[in-house]
What we know:
Layout: H1 2-26, H2 29-32, H3 47-71, H4 83-114, H5 119-128, H6 132-150, H7 164-175, H8 188-200, H9 211-218
Amino acid sequence: MKKILFFIIAIIILMFAYSEYKEYQRFHPENANLKVSETIDVNYYNQEVVYNYYDALEAANNYMQMQWSANGIDVRSPEDDDEETVLAVAEYGKKIAKLNYFKAVLEQSKTLKSKGLSNNDIKFFESEGVSIAEYNKTKAEEDFKKEILSMLPQKPLYSGEKSVFVYEMQKLLVKKGFDISVDGVYKNITSEALKSFEEKQNLFPDGKIDVITLKALLN
Length: 219
């Protein structure tokens, strides 16, 4: 009889110990704490946001552990609905919301970088609040302007000169409403169209392309 009694007591002790072990494992930092997401951009252009993400993560984990160890409240899956528990869960929710905000910013940055954007691109994208399509269009236009400006001849164009730059300049004049051929050959009709454009822009009307006239054409 005593053996049976000892056996039952041993079973109860083991069950209690196992229950305590499971509870310990459940709230052990290694198992319970939120982990750093692998989908965030740790090289985000604004490192303060990265710091704020880690800080918010640490704050949420510390609060969760503190509520459990000090008050016995599981803010993740509360078992009670008393006032203290409700307030603790609400506070934990605020910390998670803050964490998720920074996480979303950093995840978006990583996604954009996977599409080929740089930190400077992302900074512009966020400040302007445009769509990817609009951003790509704007970037392509800016790249085109830079390329055309870099092609500006150092010497005045001569009659009959043929080049890619003349071709692109003629295209710009056509966009401005001038009826000229787009053949890449610098002729008198191109010079006259350029002169007319300069007059309309209140620029010196000499019919010769320079950086000021070119920038006006590109706008």
